[in-house]
Design a protein that fits this description.
By secondary structure, this protein is an alpha+beta fold. Helices cover 33% and strands 24% of the residues. The protein folds into 2 domains: 169 residues, Beta-Lactamase, CATH 3.30.450; 228 residues, PPM-type phosphatase domain (Phosphatase 2c, domain 1). Strands 3-2-1-6-5-4 form a 6-stranded antiparallel sheet, sandwiched between helices. Strands 8, 9, 10, 11, 14 and 15 form a 6-stranded mixed sheet that branches. Strand 8 and strand 9 form a beta hairpin. It is elongated and about 105 Å long. The protein starts with 12 loop residues before the first helix and ends with a strand.
């Protein structure tokens, strides 16, 4: 019996090392498992004398079935991850015995039975080495090398072959998983983009044209979709409802709740009723159907502006009090005269309304806490003091103030990605 080393005898150790390094560099650049396997197989021909190789899988198959995923006898390669339906499945036989045996084996003086399901892959070969590729301790995959000559596989080299084949198998599996993660991420990202588009379609398409009130708004989400919500609601008698709200949490769950809020608001039957009644209605619907069991809550500020009298009547459910600058006396105060708990916390809180008489030149900034709680790299919050300073220019139009605040928040955070949704609505009485 003649036993040969599988390593190509025409290469010395330095040449083999150089070839190995070239192969490792090439493999390290691969992101496609199919291409990496092809590159590996092509380069391994320089190191091992193999007449035929067959790759097997029993993954997701009942015993004794086995799938052939690759064969060097095939003229056209099949991508087992992209084209699984093109792969042949055998029922029993020597290949099934080998892979379900979960152990490496060398068979010399090998002769396949003519009625074996794998006969056409194995006939004409006299030596066989089976190398199991383990996953969770089981040989879900296997590579079988064949030689036409008998007695050519050295058992002394079998441990090395099992070791290197399994390392390569794990590397390939990592690429497969990475590709699956990438595909899943792209699908999720497409869905999130769709959610974000739907969410933004629920926001006002344009600012209302209201006598004695100029408006501007800016809306930024921390993720694709967010839980901030603002709306302008035309009411009877020429009144305008101004709503700003912030759903607890971030991302898609908050966006869904934001959509629920929009639906409830636009189905409110009393027009125009005191703002406190609107918040009571919202709380009742949210508590009955949407919040409470999952810990979600919503802060909201709702005001009704009368363009004839320039009065703002408002109520608040735990929302950040809007900042108001009286340009007549250069003072900044908070609209905090009607505070109550957030929506979705208590069954029947007693919301109240408060009326503020406004004058030409007065400015109001409605905002969510993503503005004031935006942090610098050192952890310092933007705060209301910086927001107040943006109101210093009494003659500024709302769009100018929005841009000033947006740039100041960006500068304060050093351009870091927002950790919370940021919504800003600025009103100027004229």
């Amino acid at each position: 019996m003649r036993v040969e080393n599988l390593a190509a005898p025409d290469l010395n150790w330095e040449e083999r090392l150089l070839a190995v390094m070239e192969m490792m560099r090439e493999m390290s650049k691969q992101t496609d498992p199919q291409l990496m396997v092809q590159q590996y197989a092509a380069r391994m021909k320089r190191f091992r004398r193999i007449d035929r190789s067959i790759s097997l899988s029993r993954r997701d198959l009942p015993a004794p079935q086995v799938k052939i995923t690759r064969s060097t006898a095939w003229e056209d390669s099949v991508n087992p991850w992209k084209e699984p339906d093109k792969l042949p499945i055998l029922n029993g036989g020597i290949l099934s015995e080998l892979i379900y045996g979960d152990e490496p084996r060398i068979i010399e003086d090998f002769c396949v039975s003519p009625d074996d399901p794998a006969a056409r892959y194995l006939e004409g070969f006299s030596s066989l080495v089976a190398i199991p590729l383990l996953d969770q301790g089981v040989a879900l995959n296997m590579v079988v090398h064949l030689r036409r000559e008998s007695g050519t596989f050295d058992p002394e080299l079998l441990p090395e072959h099992v070791w290197t084949a399994n390392l390569f198998g794990r590397a390939t599996n990592s690429l497969v998983l990475a590709d699956k993660v990438k595909t899943a991420y792209e699908e999720i990202d497409r869905e999130l983009k769709a959610v974000a588009a739907i969410q933004r379609s629920l926001l006002p398409a344009k600012l209302p044209d209201v006598p004695s009130l100029h408006l501007a708004a800016n809306y930024e989400t921390a993720r694709r979709a967010g839980g901030d919500y603002y709306d302008f609601i035309p009411l009877g008698q020429g009144l305008l409802g101004i709503l700003i709200a912030d759903v607890s949490g971030h991302g898609t769950p908050a966006a869904v709740m934001m959509a629920v809020m929009h639906s409830i608001v636009h189905n409110y039957p009393n027009d125009p009723a005191p703002p406190s009644q609107m918040l009571s209605f919202l709380n009742q619907k949210l508590m009955a159907h949407y919040v409470g069991v999952n810990g979600t809550f919503v802060t909201a500020f709702y005001g009704i502006f009368d363009p004839k009298t320039r009065r703002l009547t408002y109520s608040s459910a735990g929302h950040n009090p809007p900042r108001m600058r009286r340009c007549g006396n250069q003072t900044v105060t908070a609209l905090d005269g009607a505070q109550q708990v957030p929506l979705g916390v208590l069954d029947d809180p007693e919301f109240v309304s408060h009326t503020e008489q406004l004058a030409p030149g007065d400015q109001i900034v409605f905002y969510t806490d993503g503005i004031t709680e935006a942090s610098s790299p050192a952890g310092e919050m933007f705060g209301t003091a910086r927001l107040d300073r943006a109101l210093a220019a009494c003659g500024a139009e709302p769009a100018e103030i929005v841009e000033i605040v947006r740039k100041q928040v960006e500068a304060h955070t050093a351009g870091l990605p927002a950790s919370d949704d940021r919504t800003l609505v600025v009103a100027r009485v004229v």
